[in-house]
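INTERNAL AUDIT FORM
Audit reference: QA-55
Scope: verify that the stored structure record matches its stored sequence.
Auditor: D.O.
Record contents follow.
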Amino acid sequence: MYETTYHRPTSLDEAARLASEMGDEAKYLSGGMTLIPTMKQRLAAPSALIDLRHVGDLKGISVNGSSIRIGGGTTHAEIAASSEIQSACPGFAGLAQLIGDPAVRHMGTIGGSVANFDPAADYPAALLALGATVHTNKREMSADDFFVGMFETALEEGEIVTAVSFEAPEASAYEKFRNPASRYAMCGVYVAKRADGVKVGVTGAGADGAFRWSDAEQALSSNFAPDAVGGLSVSEGDMVGDIHGSSAYRANLVKVVTKRAVKKALGQ
């Protein structure tokens, strides 16, 4: 690894000030599940790391009826273990339980995952399907506007993801087809059913990162059943292809995994 300076702020203001003083040579650290391995491979060499894990304002889970707000510094393990989230939105707690391994779940945070927007990350699919809001230290925006492209978000220089919030749906579930080595999603699908319709978020398969599958949303809004997407197809040209699976393979996975997610949401 390259030489770097470690900073441990205890407030958002202090973290923002450090980032402003150091400019684009500094990076926020919020778990480090992507940044640290990237530095070890010498693909990134920030002159300073600003560790957000000790900022109290970024931590915590708040559930008020169906309204859920999760601090950006909350770990995957804390989300998975939250009895409040398990009660209000079990599909979201179930998603957190499927992330990585115990070490990753106890170190990685939702804010870090959302800000990094890895194309195979789990949370983006859920936030798109849930119509979530992403809060930062400067503003708030819908998940649809926040996620721009692979590893690209609407975050500006020095901006910090402070929380995500959403209303719990009537029913929801997440299912993913995992790479057996990394446990990253080769395709992950989150479905969320509300009185006014269904939203479907897909991760791990799209060439531009997570996306909403509008054809499936329309079909499932009319008939919330696995067979409703049976006659649909996903454009192979919009899918990513690599050594683990071709674009055609992933296009088929989207439909297969969506069926499984709907079945799980129905408790079948």
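Auditor finding: record pair retrieved intact. The longest strand covers residues 185-194.
Action required: none
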